[in-house]
Amino acid sequence: MLVTAAFIGPGTVTACASAGIGFGYALLWALVFATLATAILQAMAARVALVTGQGLAEAILSAAGNPALRWVMAALIFASLAIGNSAYQAGNISGTAAGLKLLGLHAAHPALLALATGTLAAMMILIGKPAWLEKLLIALVLAMSLAFVGGLAVIEVDWLRVAGGLLPQLPADSLFTAIALIGTTVVPYNLFLHAASVRGKFAADAEGLAASRLDTALSVTLGGLLSMAIVIMGAATAKLTASGAGPLDDIALRLETLFGGAARSVFALGLIGAGFSSALTAPLATGYVLAEMIGGTGDPDRRARIFKGTALAVVTIGTVFAVLSVNPVQLILIAQSANGLLLPILAAFLLWVAARKASLGEFANGPIANIAGTAVVLVCAGLGARLILRSAGLWP
């Protein structure tokens, strides 16, 4: 559930709502691909962690024998997590604050709501125990699941058009949004978070690995279905009058127009659950990875200090940007597209480690896993390359 809590954040809600409002059901296929890709990569990350007894960053850097290659890998991992997650955190905190406003706290200044959200997240990271935090995250995931699925249940949906959206297509000007949908689902930091959190929960044997795969498949499928529900909500309400304030406000207004204030409140609760769960998991993932990379193996106290210091730094940076009222919507979409560009590189690192018999022995990737992982890397790389070429004017 940590994985679901991490990738269903305000960024996901924003990207999915924007996709539904702007392109109807046409980009649902991107979420189907992203959900399958996430399940494949997360299962690999969990297997690497369980078999090697290391976090994913540790396993990748340990497998790189060349010091220069190790530095390049470390830089890419740091760039995709520390920098990206700080940008995401601003969106997580702003999204939680937006949900609180939609819930009825209109009188409170957005900066105060953002500051309160950031402070609460910092306190929970500072004093919270892992088991307690995990239970809180599961509760938040269940709350947003009920909210978004409940919202979908009362909307009139054209299910034939939904089925048509499962066929790959790219309407005009939709490539950026399609990559953002993939980038908000196949989240690089989730690979590292999953690897860090799964150790000790499953045995490093065939039975434990099978249980881990089932756990991953169920959680990722739930997250993918929630993302699709938000796209469908945006598409099904797109013809109604919009507020013009942004996709989150637009969906809230349209739901209120259709079903009254209760529907707006349900959507707000889902957004709060999405925002606050991600406001906890993004700093946790960054803290885990930096502690693995520079914390050493012989001093648990030093690793704990690096972990908490890094996590609190991510919360602080995100809170500052949120308090300064930096508009998170474009920032989130750009960060997700950047994630989509970095993803093939990090996925290739993961695929390389998961296929190494020197690291995983009998549990290394077989032919089917290698083919599936390679397909994910190639599709993500192709979409990212096309975006770069279009930005440079080299692709129509």
TrEMBL record:
GO biological process: iron ion transmembrane transport
One term under GO cellular component: plasma membrane
Record's bilayer topology term: Multi-pass membrane protein
Keywords per UniProt: Membrane, Symport, Transmembrane, Transmembrane helix, Transport
InterPro entries with a match to the protein in the record: NRAMP_fam
Subcellular location: Membrane
Domain of life of the native organism: Bacteria
Transmembrane segments: 27-50, 71-88, 108-127, 136-155, 175-196, 217-238, 258-285, 306-326, 332-355, 367-389
Keyword Lipid biosynthesis tagged: no
UniProt keyword Transmembrane, yes or no: yes
GO molecular function: cadmium ion transmembrane transporter activity; manganese ion transmembrane transporter activity; symporter activity
Protein name: NRAMP (Natural resistance-associated macrophage protein)-like metal ion transporter
Species assigned in the record: Blastomonas natatoria
